[in-house]
């Protein structure tokens, strides 16, 4: 082999020699079966290799600044293409080529952004060119120890306090000796170098009780409890703390130990796609009016109709759309304001908040505080942290079908729609999954598959402008990322989803409403009180304020606000005590009279056409009818029909984890996801372990781990 460490080079044949230079030099050049190989190295000021260029058959690989660059593209290991295979090899990185002999390989060890050791192996040559005779320890490994020590002096000179410079030299001496001695025991103690155990596979050994830290530069052997942790593509040291919205996590020995916080939950309704408070994702059957949330005591509810959302009407209005709200709490306990040109935000004193995207199509984000857990029903689920019992129908029956469940919460006259089919995913939908695209930084935070599916459906089922339908789905993914703290900048320009702003307003991906209006200069701004998720849209740039004419003006041009009146600064203020009332505080619904046959007062028509007292009303589940008193067992619940409602008792229910096809997984809590891996994975770990190998089925090991 030929190798270089710090300033010392060991050629294929002959003696080692020392050179220190920052100029690029040709490390090796040869031709094999008309395949040219050229390796060029450049040292940095530290003495380590700052850049290596490996050219095989005119295909270039560069190693610089801690990156592996193949044909001008940064890649990660393992990497494979037609000519090259680059992979982790213990504490080293190794490259082999299909156009070179199988015995040929290139090996290097990284230290930070530089390279401390670099080898070229050709096992057809003698592996050890040093005259190692088993006469005494260490020194007899070299025919000329004086020359070796001279090289050591040159190499260490000026770097006596830099173990990353001199330790590779001693490592190479020990390695050459270990080819002939079973163990070289104490050289690291004598040289104060990092302790690895020399063994048969020397590049993957650490002392007993330690493990290789391959997540941080230097490849140190550390105690398991001092291992760093991995989070969202970043390596964080042992002891690091993540203070997130709903939990606080601490890195302890490679694993995260987390404590949950009392945290509100959000129900998301984006077109026909719903994610419940407990995280259950499903599709609504049609374009209808649904009860999104109903309190168990009916103290509040929200009605949702596709492309039309009803919320509370304050003094703000929505251009070209109607906004109203039905609730039991009075208007003074509710704050409604524009977060941007695209979003209206509502905050209630009860802790409920409602975020509505009104442009270009309506999307709803409803957040309830933790004290509302177990107190809700409707298409947003029952909010109890359990995903397996979300589909509780209007009659309190636990449905297994999301379609039947949603239909039970629809207003009369709802007609299910048809799911369109698509043969190939549109290219613009695939941009969501582009590993180098604008959304790539969010992939580890928000699963993208469901949004790609929604994008496909939006394209084949779009009744209007397909570009607008596409932009809505991409905006929904960007909004989900923003809720996780990852604001995706610039995606609208790349995918041609730009939006025009009225007057002199400006578009921002994280628009702020707090203290951006002329009103906020005259009185406290209620938009600053509640906590809202980031939104995009048009608004006033910092330093300007929104006037009553929806224009952004400097402070000097703002009108003043007092007692609900707007006036210029030069006009006097008159307060006559007259109270202002909102004429549209509550919508008026016309009740149309209908002729026909009806049950007498205090009697109700059941599902069999009979007039019965309320307590004798029948029940339905799906398409089946049941009389009062009937008992049904389903979904690990025993339900009794009583007075038109189901009273259900929960039973112990086993969970089922399911894996099928090419990486489709269903968790014990009925959460579906897709993961296309080609390795061996632990499927479940309790008092036994099930290991799944992609494409090869399952292996069951009976082994106690002591974990529950």
UniProtKB/TrEMBL annotation:
UniProt keywords, alphabetically: Disulfide bond, Glycoprotein, Repeat
PROSITE patterns on file: VWFD
Database matches in CDD domains: TIL
GO cellular component: extracellular matrix; extracellular space
Record domain VWFD: where: 265-421, 655-708
SMART domains per the UniProt record, alphabetical: C8 (SM00832), VWC_out (SM00215), VWD (SM00216)
Keyword Transport (UniProt): no
Protein name: VWFD domain-containing protein
């Amino acid at each position: 082999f030929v190798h270089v460490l710090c300033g010392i080079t060991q050629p294929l044949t002959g003696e080692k020699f020392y050179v220190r230079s920052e100029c690029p030099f040709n490390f090796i050049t040869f031709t094999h079966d008309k395949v040219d190989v050229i390796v060029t190295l450049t040292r940095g000021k530290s003495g380590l290799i700052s850049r290596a260029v490996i050219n095989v058959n005119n295909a270039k690989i560069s190693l610089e600044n801690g990156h592996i660059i193949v044909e001008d593209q940064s890649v990660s290991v393992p990497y494979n293409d037609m000519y090259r295979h680059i992979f982790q090899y213990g504490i080293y990185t190794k490259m082999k080529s299909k156009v070179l002999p199988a015995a040929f390989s290139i090996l290097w060890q990284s230290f930070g952004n530089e390279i401390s050791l670099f080898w070229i192996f050709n096992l057809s040559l003698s592996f050890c060119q040093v005259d190692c005779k088993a006469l005494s320890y260490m020194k007899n490994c070299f025919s000329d120890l004086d020359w070796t020590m001279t090289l050591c002096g040159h190499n260490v000179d000026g770097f006596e306090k830099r173990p990353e410079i001199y330790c590779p030299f001693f490592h190479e001496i020990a390695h050459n000796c270990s080819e002939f001695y079973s163990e070289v025991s104490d050289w690291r103690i004598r040289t104060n170098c990092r302790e690895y155990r020399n063994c048969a596979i020397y590049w993957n050994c650490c002392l007993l009780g330690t493990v290789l830290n391959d997540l941080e530069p230097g490849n140190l052997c550390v105690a398991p409890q001092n291992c760093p942790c991995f989070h969202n593509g970043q390596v964080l040291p042992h002891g690091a703390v993540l203070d997130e919205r709903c939990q606080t996590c601490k890195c302890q020995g490679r694993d995260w130990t987390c404590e949950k916080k009392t945290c509100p939950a959000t129900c998301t309704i984006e077109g026909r796609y719903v994610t419940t408070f407990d995280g259950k994702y499903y599709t609504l059957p049609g374009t209808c009016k649904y009860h999104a949330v109903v309190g168990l005591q009916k103290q509040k509810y929200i009605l949702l109709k596709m492309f039309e959302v009803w919320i509370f009407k304050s003094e703000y209005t929505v251009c070209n759309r109607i906004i109203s709200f039905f609730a039991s709490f009075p208007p003074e306990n509710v704050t409604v304001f524009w977060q941007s040109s695209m979003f209206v935000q509502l905050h209630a004193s009860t802790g409920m908040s409602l975020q509505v995207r009104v442009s270009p199509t309506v999307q709803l984000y409803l957040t309830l505080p933790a004290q509302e857990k177990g107190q809700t029903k409707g298409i947003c689920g029952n909010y109890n942290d359990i995903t397996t019992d979300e589909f509780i129908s209007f009659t309190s029956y636990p449905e297994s079908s999301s379609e039947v469940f949603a239909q039970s919460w629809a207003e009369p006259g709802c007609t299910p729609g048809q799911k369109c089919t698509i043969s190939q995913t549109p290219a613009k939908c695939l941009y969501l999954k582009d590993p180098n695209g604008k959304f790539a930084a969010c992939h580890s935070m928000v699963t993208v598959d469901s949004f790609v599916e929604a994008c496909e459906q939006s394209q084949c089922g779009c009744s209007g402008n397909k570009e607008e339908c596409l932009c809505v789905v991409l905006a929904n993914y960007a909004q989900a990322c923003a809720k996780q703290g990852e604001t995706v900048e610039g995606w609208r320009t790349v995918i041609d989803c730009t939006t025009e702003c009225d007057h002199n307003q400006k578009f921002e991906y994280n628009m702020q409403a707090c203290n951006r209006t002329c009103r906020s200069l005259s009185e406290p701004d209620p938009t600053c009180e509640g906590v809202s998720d980031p939104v995009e849209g048009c608004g006033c740039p910092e330093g300007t304020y929104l006037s009553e004419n929806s224009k952004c003006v400097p402070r000097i041009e703002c009108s003043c606000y007092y007692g609900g009146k707007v006036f210029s600064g030069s006009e006097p203020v008159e307060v006559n005590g007259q109270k202002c009332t909102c004429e549209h505080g509550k919508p008026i619904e016309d009740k149309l009279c209908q002729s026909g046959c009806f049950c007498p007062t205090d009697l109700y028509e059941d599902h069999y056409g009979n007039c019965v007292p309320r307590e004798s009303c029948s029940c339905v589940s799906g398409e089946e009818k049941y009389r009062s008193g009937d008992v049904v067992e389903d979904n690990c619940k025993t339900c009794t029909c009583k007075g038109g409602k189901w009273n259900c008792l929960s039973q112990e229910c086993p969970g089922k984890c399911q894996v099928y096809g090419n990486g489709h997984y269903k968790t014990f809590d009925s959460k579906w996801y897709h993961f296309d891996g080609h390795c061996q994975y632990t499927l479940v770990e309790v008092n036994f372990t099930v290991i799944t190998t992609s494409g090869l089925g399952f292996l069951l090991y009976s082994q106690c781990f002591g974990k529950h």
